[in-house]
UniProtKB/TrEMBL annotation:
InterPro entries according to UniProt: Gp17-like, Viral_Tail_Comp_sf
UniProt cross-references to Pfam families, sorted A to Z: Tail_completion_gp17
Protein name per Swiss-Prot or TrEMBL: Phage protein
Species annotation: Candidatus Rhodobacter oscarellae
Length: 137
């Protein structure tokens, strides 16, 4: 059986990659960032830290996964970064992610910050999403 957080990460990647408008803005979404993550564009998304807590949701055993996505943009100013943040927020706040081995309950954005990165010319957005999965064991 695939670990719930592994299946969730795969569903996040699949949801991003199927969104043509988002993919037109980013070089990809990465767990391990490649040497040239930007490709032909000026932004990309990477996975940051994640946590998991056990609990209950409407009487069911559940896992709460907090997943950080980082947006990196070399475009001048913050506009591109803000546009990508907006698209990611709506993508994961409105969608039901298809999971084969676990039951997806809901997802929503809990934190969004846009900050200048120490590397000159890079804007960094930090997004934390909370995803609830029903425990199928």
């Amino acid at each position: 059986m695939t670990a719930p957080d592994v299946e969730l990460q795969g569903a996040i990647v699949a949801a991003v990659e199927v969104d043509a408008g988002l993919m037109a803005l980013i070089g990809g979404i990465y767990d391990g960032v490649p040497e040239d993550p930007y490709g032909a564009v000026t932004a990309y998304v990477s996975f940051g830290p994640s946590t998991m807590d056990l609990g209950e949701f409407e009487g069911l055993r559940a896992e709460k996964h907090v997943v950080q996505l980082d947006v990196w943009s070399r475009a001048v100013g913050r506009v591109e970064c803000k546009d990508i943040v907006h698209r990611l927020k709506h993508l994961f706040s409105e969608a039901v992610l298809p999971l084969d081995q676990n039951a997806f309950v809901r997802g929503h954005l809990t934190l969004s910050r846009i900050i200048p990165d120490p590397k000159d010319g890079v804007t960094h957005a930090i997004l934390q999403f909370e995803f609830e999965l029903e425990d199928q064991t």
